[in-house]
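--- STAGE predict ---
source: upstream dedup step, 1 unique chain passed
mode: sequence only
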Amino acid sequence: MRELTFFMPTRVVFGQDVVKKAGDGLALGRKALIVTGQTSARKSGALDDVLSVLTGDYVLFDRVENNPTGENCLEGAELAKKENCDYIIAIGGGSPLDAAKVMAVLAVNDKKPLELYGGWENQPLPIVAIPTTAGTGSEVTPYAVLTLHEEETKKGLGGPDLFPRVAYLDPKYTASLPRQVTIDTAVDALSHLVEGYLSNRATPASDFVALQGIAVWGATIPALRAGQFTMEDRENLLLASMLGGITIAQTGTTFVHALGYPLTYFHDYPHGRANGVFMASYLEYTNEHAPERVETVLELLDVPSLEAFRELMNELFADFVGKLHVGEERIRAYAEKAAQTRNVTYSRGTPTVDQLTKILKDNIL
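--- STAGE serialize ---
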């Protein structure tokens, strides 16, 4: 008999001008902390839309780093306390959305950022999430990823109360993204969908979401290859990203993420691009343990073979293939650190340090 759980409490509002249409309903309290990075919220038009309908007071924190640290989040949380904010509006890509979740916890819990990995007592401030990229799906997950200089890596924390209260998704907010950022974030979304479907924690319910998302993502491959995107393409990518977030909220991610984190931390690779480096090898490895599932992924993407999938990744990242050079000693260290993560235990076959080392060597040596 099947046993499964499926928990996704975020209310999702998807479509054109959904923020403006929300009107007074956008506010979840008396005073908002608006959390953004330095540019995307303004360039996308999302911040202007929020301010055009927002009722009540607000204070703006627009200093979220590209890969936020606990200290960066603590700065925002202290502002929320000082200004007596009772909810958060997060606008941006994965970094502002993840940072906002940590700020929401720190604003009402007397803890240091690193202590949050052991949990917290008080309910975080409620969050309105407005993504401006189509990649992380953070608007519908209970996770936040921080950069930990103490451990020289990125590391996720999570809890059911980190789900945003409501997410407003408007494809027009992604229209200002440059071509390569669109590709990087799109591959991040694909990695969530594929890893969730191939995870050993997958369920029939999560599969239903993941398979729909993979099919929607596959329809955007011609646009990704051409680097030219219609609003329909943007809509499909944003929908796929959201479905990827819903998927990993149930399953978590696999060793693709564990191997990708050092490329982001040590080599400044954007998260989606770091995942893309290992996606083909991940499918090849998993094909040894769940060939029917890998075949389903390829069919939904309309990609004829594993070799063709590798060619697709190489094409999307043509400007970066073969440009990263890492010594064998560091590669082994990356593999050993990855092997200690939950991501690896969620992977079918549970790869060993030697197997992870080989995958690293095959793709970045």
